[in-house]
């Protein structure tokens, strides 16, 4: 049996990893496809259905005790990582602890995986980790274990943002990078920017790194409309999304407009308080969190003038892909791989990572006031850029063709 084992954080449970809902529609080339959520909690709830031919298995992880924690030092990969940190003068108590905590989680996942008869019965296993982090390390251990039993087994992994950018992590360190790259047959960052980082930091593994953009489905091209100037943002309400900067920009608006933010999160109360201080010409709507299908329905039904994303860090935002697929112009910060989908002056405008809110307001005023012909070009270019590089119908079949070889 040729098996694809997809290791996720929680999908198809709880929230997050919504992009997989679209991707798995195109999964093919295997006799069986299993989704294994590695980070479930006791109160996790299944929230997404899986397409026909895709199943999920509950992972029965056991707690790792002190004795097992100490035994991590016997793993050659852990000793090699700690030695490399020492050799490069990067070793600290915090980084050593992070390495051990990382591998403790990886071992817990690995030990649960090798208790699953469905996995052990397969002759040919592709372990596909959605994140280039501890589940990928568990996948590396599993592939090695299966090969020792005479099976065909390999590890591949996607990589997004936090699992690439070491400078964003608490100790400016991501554990076990060399081990993961050495163990993987291929690593697929979701942006050229991410691929470039991995190739430059680990040139000995550059040949394993290949960009694989995510994609969104074609739900039609409504195009932007400025009958009522309507800016839309869509994200989880957390600090990295910097939504208060949008509110700050709109405080000085002197023309009629509506701002809709789709999503909820820890900062919802603060955003609603800030919205109350906006001038009367600015109407604000917070419809809350929506299922992905409902977001797409919103774009089909509503007249949207411009989509805005002001995050401090990103991979390539799927929210921007969705907006571009509908032909909406985009204003976004030039962070991560955002510049791969927002081409400054072509389908929208890029802000510096550290921008003044007045700059955002100026761009909104520019989009509002531009000639209709130029505005329509922005809309058309958004759709064209999406179609050429970020279409699910194009990207995912190509990705699974590579995985199934």
Word description of this protein:
With 405 residues, the protein is an alpha/beta fold. The protein has two domains: 2-215 and 393-403, Glycogen Phosphorylase B (Rossmann fold, 3-Layer(aba) Sandwich); 230-389, Rossmann fold (3-Layer(aba) Sandwich). The chain contains 15 helices and twelve strands. The strands form two sheets. It has a six-stranded parallel beta sheet. The chain has a six-stranded parallel beta sheet with strand order 9-8-7-10-11-12, sandwiched between helices.
Name some characteristics of this structure:
405 residues; alpha/beta; Rossmann fold; transferase
How far is the N terminus from the C terminus?
A: 14 Å
Write down the secondary-structure element order: EHEEHHHHEHEHEHEHEHEHEHEEHHH
Supply the number of structural domains.
2
Contiguous uncertain segments of 5+ residues: none
**What level of helicity do the residues show?**
25-40%
| Gross CATH architecture of the largest domain | 3-Layer(aba) Sandwich
Write out the strand line-up for the largest beta sheet, numbering strands in chain order: 3-2-1-4-5-6
